[in-house]
Target: 3-isopropylmalate dehydrogenase
Amino acid sequence: MERKITVLPGDGIGPEVVASAVRVLQVIGKRFNHTFHLGYATIGGAAIDQHNNPLPDETIEMCENSDAILLGAVGGPKWDQNPPELRPEKGLLRIRKHFDLFANLRPVKAFPSLLDASPLKREVAENVDLMIVRELTGGVYFGEPRMRTENGAIDTTVYSKAEVERIVENAFELARLRGGKLCSVDKANVLETSRLWREVVEAKKKEYPDVIVEHNLVDSVAMKLITNPGHYDVVVTENMFGDILSDEASVITGSLGVLPSASIRGDNFGLYEPVHGSAPEIAGQGVANPAATILSVAMMLQYSFGLKEEAAEIERAVSAVFDDGYFTADLARDGSRILSTNEWTDKVINEIDTSF
Amino acid sequence: MERKITVLPGDGIGPEVVASAVRVLQVIGKRFNHTFHLGYATIGGAAIDQHNNPLPDETIEMCENSDAILLGAVGGPKWDQNPPELRPEKGLLRIRKHFDLFANLRPVKAFPSLLDASPLKREVAENVDLMIVRELTGGVYFGEPRMRTENGAIDTTVYSKAEVERIVENAFELARLRGGKLCSVDKANVLETSRLWREVVEAKKKEYPDVIVEHNLVDSVAMKLITNPGHYDVVVTENMFGDILSDEASVITGSLGVLPSASIRGDNFGLYEPVHGSAPEIAGQGVANPAATILSVAMMLQYSFGLKEEAAEIERAVSAVFDDGYFTADLARDGSRILSTNEWTDKVINEIDTSF
Ligand SMILES: CC(C)[C@H](C(=O)O)[C@@H](O)C(=O)O
Ligand SMILES: CC(C)[C@H](C(=O)O)[C@@H](O)C(=O)O
Model:
């Protein structure tokens, strides 16, 4: 197989973790006989510095001519005081919207060898294997009007039925491929958009008799993600709730530094990035944890290219390196061996190479 | 001191836990020489059944002639299919709005003897002592337009500067009385209302040089409430974020069943209720945990009546009964003695009586 990928290293530790992930990608290509053509472009703070634009036209164009995007991270104190249009995260919001990447997939799975780092008791966190499906291009993030008024400010949450239908359908499909359970999250006791959301889920579930569906209020899910995260399989929700709940979910297994994400649309195109941020405080030191970006490449192989075996091989290798007791500094604990970003990546690559 | 209190037992376990809390209130009155005049009225499902209205005019009128309101809980499966206007929680939303109860105070404090019930590791949860201050009468809960449209639905988040100012001021005052730290939560990288919110906090902080202020994004707080809840003192946020974060915070110490809340406005008037719901599945069995409602009475004494010593006495008594190993069924564990709602309340009352 031959594929074109646009690589957007971004800011902070972005370039370092992306370099690691690209190495792993190329090794997988070699081993399974695929050719991945990479093109590099800027986004976020780096793009503001070079082009005075967090998402330059050149970047958009290159992405348009690619099959998938690999992103590091954006942001840093350098640009924190910029006006809204010249802030790094604006590049992120715009690329999502431009490419209509409406489904944000955030898997959270406990790695047994990382559970000591979890704030939760082992017995609460150990069976976690869930996927949050967050609507990413609608809701209050993009609704109009959004403005200052004479004596205050307003934001608007807007959803069309079609927008809800496509994300809900996506979640049902994922539930079918995973554990067969879907939890739809809303605030139907207060919001009109939530009542619409709930109706769409109710209508759609007739097409998926094999999927067990529950509706839960967002406040109640915020509790249950902590008290009983093992309960969940696929969780689907709107943009703002998804932002909060997916970040909440990301810390329950102690593995925030190793969580990947995918932002996809109806076809095979998608953007893949680690859940963690640009971590400016450790940038340039070669100590960042590349696992989340490497696992994001695995998601790319699976969701954009349909390469399941290849994706599984990366996941297996990452797990094996953790099980062998090798960690980057963020996951340090008694008895573990601390490696640099590159050394840790080497371990993953060796694991892949030697497993022919 | 003489005070009038309207008691709204509500639904499910509401009447049972309220009865316990009223007994404790009367004992405190006797011991400290105060007279509390109680009037009873309906709200929620009980009010729908009797008056076809979740917040009848008689109830409003009685509350208007009182100094404070004690509420049990509302809701239950019986009314779940009702149209929005005839649902129990509508009574709650309307009473908040009618009495302009704009500040919802939700303290979360670890009881050492309850930490085994926490999903978090002991070392993460043990130092928790925070107060979430949630704006309760604005934002997307009441903003217009909120409606179905031709092809979808919309909700509107609205805040006036004055609405933000009064809640922020309230939070600063509380921070000054507590640990001197305030975390303001918003989504200023996306929302206009959040940028307004942040500006107001920045302006207000000049009047409180003794309070240490930080701004945090809601997604980041959703994480940190789990990874490092001991970091927080007072946390102030808007209505919808507050709904989610205060429920999230309520489970970190394992003591959801014992958490009180206050909903107050500028003067001394306020509504006090447990954080837990109506728990219809155990209603009428006499096994509900009355601690949260008893502690809500303590908040009433403190915030509406300025009776600090009396409030502290209730808190001390509740703690002592837990430390003695007495629990209601929800908190059962090895070696604990399980008491009924009334028996457990007796223990608290004895503790107060014998401590002259
Ligand atoms: C940076 C910010 C705008 C963004 C969001 O809220 O979507 C981030 O928190 C995320 O979840 O990717
Ligand atoms: C019942 C519901 C409308 C209410 C809210 O969202 O405010 C509840 O969750 C609460 O927090 O008191």
Remarks:
- The longest strand of chain B covers residues 2-10.
- Residues A 89, 92-93, 243; B 189-190, 219 surround 3-isopropylmalic acid (ligand 1) (CB under 6 Å).
- The longest helix of chain B spans residues 14-32.
- Chain B has two domains: 1-109+252-356, 129-238.
